[in-house]
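User: Can you predict the 3D structure for this chain?
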Amino acid sequence: MSKEYTYEPIGTVLTDYGDGRLFLIYGRPGKDATEVREQGMWLGDMLEKLHIENPKRKFKMLVDLDKLLLLRLDDLSRGIYREIIKRSYLKKIAIAGDAFCYTKILPLLVMTRFRKTKAKFFMNIAGAYKWLKWK
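Assistant: Here is the predicted structure, written as C-alpha cells:
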C-alpha cells in the first residue's frame, strides 16, 4: 500500500510504495536558498522516518526534476543533499531531468563518489526506470 508525503510550501511529493521504491516529484523551484534548504531538510527527515519504520529495508529512489525549470543549489543545499545520497539505506537513486538540471546536479554527484553505482542522472525517466529495474 503506497503512502504519499507532501512538502506543502512547494508541493513536492514523496511516494513510498511500501516495497522499497520511493518516487520523489518536485513541485516547483524554491524561491530562494532558504526554501531550497528547508525542502532538503524535509526530505532528509522523511527518509529518516521511513528508515526508522523499516530499519532492514534498502530503498531505491526515483527523483523527477521535470517541474524544476530553474534549480538553485548553494553550498549548504549541496551539503544537505550530499548527506542524503550517502545514507546507507538508500541503495540506488535515479535522478531524471533536463540538461540544465544535469549541470546543477553533476557537482553534487561527483562530490559523493557514487555517480555510477548509487546515484545516476538520466535525461529521461524511462532510462531511470530501467536502471532501477522498476519496469
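The CA atoms of residues 30 and 102 lie 17 Å apart. The mean pLDDT is 89.
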